[in-house]
Amino acid sequence: MTTALEHPGTSVQALTEQLASAAPQQAAAAEAALVRLADAGDLAACDALVSAYSEGRPALPPNPVKEYRYTARAAEGGSAFHRYWLAHLQYHAKDYPGAYANASLAHQENIGAATDLLARMLLQGQGCHAQPLAALDMLTHSVESRSNTDAALTLAMLYLEGQHVGAHPQAAYDTLHGLASDFAVIAHIDKPAYARYCYLKAWALRGGAQGQDGETWLPLCEKAAALGHADAKASLAAQHRQDAGRQREAQWEGLQHFTAFGGRWMMFYRVARLAEQHEKSHQHVGSINGNVYTTTSRWNVLVFAERDGSRFEVKVPPKAKVVPQRDYAVLFIGPATGTVGVPRLICDLGTGESVEPMGDLASNYRDESSKVLKVLSVWAWLGAIIAVGVCLSQQSAMALLAAIGLLVAGVKLGSAHRGQHDDALERVRAFFKEHAKDLVR
């Protein structure tokens, strides 16, 4: 097998291709040949080595020290781009004086990326005294005279963040849109830069800038997110959460009121984590006809902790199944004219299962409810029982009809007394199941 070392006249292009070989011996031979050429002052060989040491090759790992060495050699050989790249490497190594000096030289050679780097160093005073106005002027001139896309992105960011100049979304948008054709050219060459261009335009439009050519913020943000821009993805996720939140609030407003027990009621809920659970009991001693008796009441107290650190307690029957450290939505119901209520439902946001706390809505709010329908229902049931007794003793058809009528009336009156209460709880259960993931966030 012949190698490049056996043919000193092999072109740099051929050696560069051989350097990308997965065979270690082939790659090593190409590297040695390119090093020899670079040491002799061949700029193309230097460039091939810088690229390989920066990104790595199948049989050649990245090597930042050698990348720096041959970048400096190319810069010394007169390559303006490598002068900029040397400044770039020095900047990220925090060698600001060296970076400033080399960026200044590359800027004088009209390397757009060097102008952008130099302006950013002038803004921050890195390797020099801070000169924000000079930096802004440099960026603006580079955008206007050389269509410098790197400078346009930096300048737009400064306008959006209000650094050194007042926040000016319209100026940011106009700066970017003025180079729309230039950014279209680099869309497939430098996707991160194009994604940033789309995101910054979206940011400007959302901040109040007037768009051109029918551009709106959401499609631009979606395009940037599709290209992998992290801030664009975060903005879209936040927007989707806001949209979902508004829809959820509208849905809740449509179901939170109902009529039952002769009154009008309002529901609200609190999302919290079950922090503690305590067993409680109470003994009652009484007597009937001189006979002493003891009864014991048992219940559990659930302590819930909300995100802001506040806590509240709910009493539940001792057999209620709940899981500590799990997220729950606790439903409260109170009079429609008030702002407080009593807990009436505890829904597990992980499983959708629910338990009902101890107590009764009508008993907690005697002044807000009416027992007329309940009393009538009881009387109807008693009437039905009496009618059945008459029917059995006298075998009267009229008594049978009366019993049936009173029985139906008792059922309907009892149902009317509870009104929409049970249906309201079912709708709330469905609501919590539908929005469980969003409520936990």
List the main descriptive attributes of the protein structure presented here:
16% strand, alpha+beta, Serine Threonine Protein Phosphatase 5, Tetratricopeptide repeat, disordered N terminus, seven-stranded antiparallel beta sheet, 441 residues, single chain
Task: Summarize the helices and strands and which ones pair or pack.
Elements: H1 12-19, H2 24-39, H3 43-55, H4 64-76, H5 80-92, H6 96-108, H7 112-124, H8 132-146, H9 149-161, H10 169-177, H11 180-186, H12 191-206, H13 217-226, H14 230-255, E1 257-260, E2 263-288, E3 291-305, E4 311-316, E5 327-335, E6 342-348, E7 354-355, H15 361-364, H16 372-394, H17 397-418, H18 421-434, H19 436-440
Antiparallel strand pairs: 1-2, 2-3, 2-5, 3-4, 5-6, 6-7
Helix pairs in contact: 1-2, 2-3, 3-4, 4-5, 5-6, 6-7, 7-8, 7-9, 8-9, 9-10, 9-12, 10-12, 12-13, 13-14, 16-17
Overall description:
This protein is 57% helix and 16% strand. The chain is of the alpha+beta class and 441 residues long. Among the domains are: 147-255, Serine Threonine Protein Phosphatase 5, Tetratricopeptide repeat, CATH 1.25.40; 262-368. Strands 1, 2, 3, 4, 5, 6 and 7 form a 7-stranded antiparallel beta sheet that branches. The longest helix has 26 residues, at 230-255. The chain starts with 11 loop residues before the first helix and ends with a helix.
